[in-house]
Structures are given as structure tokens and as C-alpha cells.
Amino acid sequence: MSPLAIKTCGYLVSTVSVLLLAIVAWPGASKHPPLEIVLIFGAATSVTGMGLRWLSYWIEERRKKEANDPV
Fold first, then answer.
1. Could you report how far apart the first and last alpha carbons of the chain are, in Å?
2. pLDDT of residue 70
3. What CA–CA distance (Å, rounded) separates 49 from 15?
4. pTM for the full model?
5. What is the structure's pLDDT at 60?
6. Which residue in 14, 15, 19, 65 has the fewest CB atoms around it within 10 Å?
7. Are 43 and 22 in contact (CB under 8 A)?
8. If you ran DSSP here, which 8-state letter would residue 32 be given?
9. CB distance 42 to 36 below 8 Å
10. Which has the closest alpha carbon to 17: 36, 49, 43?
11. Using DSSP, how many helices (H) and how many strands (E) does the chain show?
12. Distances (CA, A) of 17 to 9, 12, 28
């Protein structure tokens, strides 16, 4: 398995984890609108952050590959 595939799987697992935790927290947060907003924002920023980290890794790997491939 390639490092990119392993990293992708790790970020997918982390994303699912955040979503599962948000689902479990939702019944309590849904009773208080400010908590709903914080829960949604927190889950969204966490997933976005993981996506950005994965994207930066992908870009670095692509650049390394391009630098090593003679044209």
C-alpha cells in the first residue's frame, strides 16, 4: 500500500470519527441553538482541516514525483 493510500485512509477514518462523535453529541446540542452552531462549526472545521492536510501532502508527493521524472 502506498504512503498516499495509507494517509488517505487515515484521514477518511478521522473524518468518520468526527462525524460519529457529532452524531452522538447532536441530541444534547440540538436543545440549545448556540451549541448546535458550535457543534456543526467544530465538525466542519475539523473535516476541512483534515482535507487540507491531505491536499498538501498530495501536492508535495506530486511535486516530488515531477522533480524525479526526467522530461
1. 27
2. 67
3. 10
4. 0.82
5. 93
6. 65
7. yes
8. S
9. no
10. 43
11. 2, 0
12. 12, 9, 18
How far, in Å, CA of 69 to CA of 60, rounded? 14
Place of cell 475539523: 46
Residue 9 corresponds to which cell in the numbers above? 485512509
DSSP, collapsed to helix, strand or coil, labels residue 65 as helix
Name residue 58's amino acid.
Answer: W
The residues, ordered by sequence, that sit 6+ positions from 23 with a Cβ below 8 Å of its Cβ are: none
Per-residue pLDDT of the chain (71 residues; tens, 9 = 90+): 888 899 999 999 999 999 999 999 999 999 999 999 999 999 999 999 999 999 999 999 999 989 987 66
Q: What is the pLDDT of residue 71?
A: 62
